[in-house]
Amino acid sequence: MTDRHQPARVRTEDDTEEPIDVDVETRIKHYQKMMVDELLNNLEQRLPIPEVVFKFRDALDFSRMPHDENGDFLVWGDDALKWIVNNKLKHLDIGTVMDQAMHMRIFIAENWDRWVKKTTTMTDAGEEEEVRKFDLAALYETIFSEHVLPSPTPPHQFLEVLDYSIAFRFTQCDTERLGRTMNLMKTSARASLGDEHFEQSVFIAYNAPRTHDINITKLVLEWEKKHHLALQKDSRRTGARSLEVISRMKNKHKVTFLH
Fold it and tell me: What does the domain layout of the chain look like in residue ranges?
């Protein structure tokens, strides 16, 4: 029989046992830490993050930008910005983007306190603590809504890079909404929906405008004008050929228990 007065023990990662405080809160925190460590183990291999996301952070997360008098902010993020343009936005002029980015950094450094907000947070001891936090969203709103550069021409090319980075944003609420969209898309009635079409359907459902904002009639007319699908014509010969094409593409993407 075990001694009921012995301290509680827990098995650690190296398969050894060690005593922990019998206090319930301490034990719960210990278990939570073990679960989080397990979730984070090999996270990069299970859920790889595209390299461009890190480049956006290094070039456009201005809360990380130095803003002191040393002038380091003048070249901050240049390497990452060059990578983005050369690999993702090749139609932009790299010189123009770099010049507009430098002037943007100067503007941000000179007006840094404008986007620093005071907020309160709870410490581990349960006490409120006042902290200063850089509001990146407010900065982006300023950049898109105000004329912030000395040039009479708005920084269109830099703003296009910034717009592209916003499309890559992902937060906890984004993943929750996307998960809901995936559940609504893959219903029991769509059990045979293949991976490729499932991914395309989720992308459209999550990113496309709302149905009442789309001019469906115009889309149909443009589609008929460009494609002239034989199924829309009173032609048995061409209609049969089109049916063969559609059936072949359908079978290619359909999931069955034989695959």
Answer: 9-40, 52-169, 216-259
The chain-wide mean pLDDT, for the chain, equals 80
Question: Closest by alpha carbon to 104, among 164, 167, 160?
Answer: 160
Higher pLDDT, 44 or 117: 117
> Which residue matches tokens 């983005």?
84
CA-based nearest residue to 142, from 64, 68, 62, 75: 62
Range ranked top by mean pLDDT from 6-15, 59-68, 189-198: 59-68
CA neighbor of 53 nearest in space, from 171, 203, 160, 169: 169
Under the banding of pLDDT at 50, 70 and 90, the label for residue 157 is: very high
